[in-house]
Specification:
The structure is a homodimer.
Chain A lengths: L19 H19 L6 H7 L4 H8 L2 H26 L4 H11 L8 H12 L3 H30 L6 H21 L6 H15 L4 E2 L2 E2 L2
Antiparallel strand pairs in A: 1-2
Helix pairs in contact in A: 1-2, 1-4, 1-6, 2-3, 4-5, 4-7, 5-7, 6-8, 7-8, 8-9
The structure holds a DNA duplex (30 and 30 nucleotides).
DNA sequence: GAATATTGACTGACTATTCAGTAGGAGACA
DNA sequence: TGTCTCCTACTGAATAGTCAGTCAATATTC
């Protein structure tokens, strides 16, 4: 628990002084790990600092208050998530099916889908005071996400053509992604990302059988 | 926030002394409300007691420690949830489609699907220390639930017949229910139970089109 | 030497828990 | 019916522990 994240490199002692940005990021990472390990309610500044091998006074030096640290941690997660699906969409083929496939896969990118980050997301969702905060800063992220997945489903529905209401299909896909994330946290025998992705593909195949199978994008 | 839950009846003043069981339930209810209003991390015994119009000493009198109060609150929610779907299944027609319909509807029973209870569930899920606790006491509940919905989906799949893997379909339905619950908590413009149920039915219709439409059970 | 980062002892506020005391009700007995 | 005694629920002041935030001293880098 107290292992410092940053180990000194053998022949070049870790610089005691690091750039503002580096330390801030290091403390945000420690916050995520600490919340995952101890829970939101039991997370103290000392825990966070110790996890990074630093003293708690430094946390206040860089973030002023605990609340600001937690806020910035949430904003970091939100921005990382947004950047991840945005990048995935941009990198994918422009065909609706490929776009949807990219969107579904994006959620299981190992960079954002780690146990600690899932746990931290879960903790922020659960903490009543965090929801308005999230809405205020990231509500527009979610709206963009909803719009993106809905538009793709509409295009895919036209292309099929499929008779399902594409908005409903989009929402089912979205909540399935959310539900699977939650499942990965809470289920007794947590299943792998691969298994989670298979569940999402089963859903996509049920709505868009001409484009998806239970194994993934067709063709 | 400080409104006593139990108002004195006009001509019969509220008894100062009430039965052990009544007070315990009253305090558990207050705990749910307080967690919903203030968040898990900020919930204090004084908050809980004030919400019930009682003194904080009484909480320790009845529950010994704060931890036990929170544990018992979680167990109460879990048992209420289990009893709800079990009862719904028993009351429904034995045809697989009717059983599945009962199971899907059960989650939206106004008795268990209140904003405060959703919020409390969310808080417990989010708090890392609560997950092992839940597993230990209620893991078997979840297993029974998984088995029930999986069995029903298998029967329904045979009856269709449908080509989807019924276990996957069951899991998608289950995580859709979970995801919709989460959505009711977190989305900017929270949608009604009716709208949430429609989303779940869209999912059921996608997997079992010979038994469900987007509006619900067929026939 | 100046600027900045870092430490850690300290403070003050908050809160879980304890406990000595209060009060209402239920029998026992007259 | 009155009153005495006991039991249990209940109160709230006191206690003890925790933790966020402060700050003077120190280290590091330029």
């Amino acid at each position: 628990m107290n292992d410092p994240i940053v180990k000194p490199v053998a022949d070049a002692p870790a610089p005691r002084k690091l750039s503002r940005e580096f330390r801030r990021q290091q403390l945000i990472d420690s916050t995520i790990e600490t919340i995952a390990a101890r829970g939101y309610a039991r997370t103290t500044l000392t825990d966070v600092a110790n996890h990074a091998g630093l003293s708690h006074g430094l946390v206040n030096f860089h973030f002023q208050t605990k609340e600001k640290l937690l806020t910035e941690t949430l904003l970091f997660l939100a921005e990382e998530y947004r950047a991840n699906w945005t990048r995935a969409l941009a990198a994918a083929d422009s065909a609706p099916a490929a776009q949807l496939d990219a969107m579904l896969r994006a959620d299981f990118n190992p960079a954002i889908c780690t146990p600690a980050k899932l746990s931290a997301w879960c903790a922020f969702w659960g903490e009543a005071q965090c929801r308005p905060l999230y809405q205020e800063h990231c509500g527009s992220n979610d709206e963009a996400y909803f719009t993106a997945i809905e538009t793709i489903c509409k295009d895919l529905s036209d292309e099929g053509p499929y008779s399902y209401n594409p908005s409903r299909a989009a929402r089912v896909l979205r909540v399935t992604l959310e539900g699977v994330w939650l499942d990965m946290m809470t289920t007794n025998t947590p299943y792998s990302r691969a298994e989670a992705l298979a569940t999402v593909y089963a859903c996509a195949a049920a709505f868009f059988p001409r484009h998806f199978t239970g194994e993934g994008l067709m063709g």
